[in-house]
Amino acid sequence: MKLLMLCSSVYGHTSTVCRHMRPALEAAGFEVVEHALPDAPPDPAEFDAVLIGASIRNGKHNPAVLQFIERYQSALQARPSAFFSVNLVARKPHKNTPQTNPYVRKFLETSPWQPDRVGVFGGQLNYRRYRRFDRWVIRFIMWMNKGPTDLDTNADFTDWDAVRAFAEEFAEFARQNRA
């Protein structure tokens, strides 16, 4: 069984989340092929299941994610599929579900693809790693939302147990419902 895992990451944290999911997917019997978007991805029709992870930057998922979905919508709908978003809003307990996270809700409202499973995880805040403009934009957003604004902040808001559980649950679903 082959699983395509697509990751759209700006500063690398979403790729780290994908790497943490990989052992659970492999333990369920999947050969995982990981690919970074926006690089030219393989055709999802060649896989038994597809998992897409995307980060938020300046309030949006990478446009390449939606372009991929629009191009391969029928292949995505024809096999077990999942989507997860990594964003700093999800650090808040009342914004860390697909139903309560504004970015995931907007994604699901605008996407022609409706994945079988959807997850959302808090991201990493590391001001020193950001480009100057991004650092100030993110700091302003954090200030507006009563988040950390100290430029020395390096905080990981990811619930790694939830990441593992999401991967395990999707792997089981995909195994039972594979294309």
UniProtKB/TrEMBL annotation:
<dbReference type="InterPro" id="IPR052200">
    <property type="entry name" value="Protoporphyrinogen_IX_DH"/>
</dbReference>
<comment type="function">
    <text>Catalyzes the 6-electron oxidation of protoporphyrinogen IX to form protoporphyrin IX; under anaerobic conditions uses menaquinone as an electron acceptor, under aerobic conditions uses ubiquinone as an electron acceptor.</text>
</comment>
<feature type="domain" description="Flavodoxin">
    <location>
        <begin position="4"/>
        <end position="151"/>
    </location>
</feature>
<dbReference type="GO" id="GO:0004729">
    <property type="term" value="F:oxygen-dependent protoporphyrinogen oxidase activity"/>
</dbReference>
<dbReference type="InterPro" id="IPR044264">
    <property type="entry name" value="HemG"/>
</dbReference>
<dbReference type="Pfam" id="PF12724">
    <property type="entry name" value="Flavodoxin_5"/>
</dbReference>
<comment type="similarity">
    <text>Belongs to the HemG family.</text>
</comment>
<comment type="pathway">
    <text>Porphyrin-containing compound metabolism; protoporphyrin-IX biosynthesis; protoporphyrin-IX from protoporphyrinogen-IX: step 1/1.</text>
</comment>
<keyword id="KW-0627">Porphyrin biosynthesis</keyword>
<dbReference type="GO" id="GO:0010181">
    <property type="term" value="F:FMN binding"/>
</dbReference>
<dbReference type="InterPro" id="IPR029039">
    <property type="entry name" value="Flavoprotein-like_sf"/>
</dbReference>
<protein>
    <recommendedName>
        <fullName>Protoporphyrinogen IX dehydrogenase [quinone]</fullName>
        <ecNumber>1.3.5.3</ecNumber>
    </recommendedName>
</protein>
<keyword id="KW-0547">Nucleotide-binding</keyword>
<dbReference type="GO" id="GO:0070819">
    <property type="term" value="F:menaquinone-dependent protoporphyrinogen oxidase activity"/>
</dbReference>
<keyword id="KW-0288">FMN</keyword>
<dbReference type="InterPro" id="IPR026816">
    <property type="entry name" value="Flavodoxin_dom"/>
</dbReference>
<keyword id="KW-0285">Flavoprotein</keyword>
<keyword id="KW-1003">Cell membrane</keyword>
<keyword id="KW-0472">Membrane</keyword>
<dbReference type="GO" id="GO:0005886">
    <property type="term" value="C:plasma membrane"/>
</dbReference>
<dbReference type="GO" id="GO:0006782">
    <property type="term" value="P:protoporphyrinogen IX biosynthetic process"/>
</dbReference>
<keyword id="KW-0560">Oxidoreductase</keyword>
